[in-house]
Every structure is written in C-alpha cells, then in structure tokens.
Model the fold of this input.
Amino acid sequence: LEALTIVGRKAEPLWRAARGNLARFDAILTWWRVVDGEIEPVREDESFLQDAAQLLTSEPWDETTWAAWTSDVKTATGRKGKALFHPLRLALTGAESGPELAALLPLIGHAKALARLVGAGA
Done:
C-alpha cells in the first residue's frame, strides 16, 4: 500500500474492506480516492438522496452506522432492496458495485458523505 502512497489511519481498514473486490492490486487506488480523495458521485433520484442526507447521523461512526442509517432511510422512505441501496452506493462511491458500504462509510466520513448526498461533490 505504501508503494501506491496509500498511507495513514484509513489505509489498513480500506485494504481489509476492498481486497476481496480487487482484480489487481493497484485497483485499490480507485477505492482510496473514494475514501480519501474526491469522486464524481452518480446522482440518481435527487429527492431520495436529500431525504437520506437529512437522516445521516453525526460521527463517530463504526461498522454499525450503515445498517442503522439505511434502516432509518428505509422507514422514512418506504424503500427497500435495490431501490434503497443502489442510489446510496452510486452517490457515495460513484460505482455500481464494490466493497461493503458498512466498512466504507466510516472511512468516507460524514463531511464527504453528506456532500456527495446533497450534490456538492467531494
């Protein structure tokens, strides 16, 4: 990871979260940008993303945050399954698939997650 300049407190947790989703070692750089850089979020269903943003809890976050937050979003919006998870994944990661968001969300952090949900970019 250090050879790819992936260092700091997020490096090891990111590796644990993403390694099963990598076809090549250097593909970790894509996920490093998601958690420590800027991405172009994919915006699908603006009003749903605004509702989800309003329900985003404050940090500190851990591996339980994703489940608690999406449960709140499900209750508030009535969405479930792909209709619930897909727009959130696209907005938060810019990708159709990838590592578990339960592991990624705490690494992305509140400020980036909120900015991506409301369309501010981050």
In short: The helical segments are 11-18, 28-36, 46-54, 65-77, 82-93, 101-108, 110-118. The chain has seven helices and no strands. Residues 16 and 103 are 9 Å apart (CA to CA).
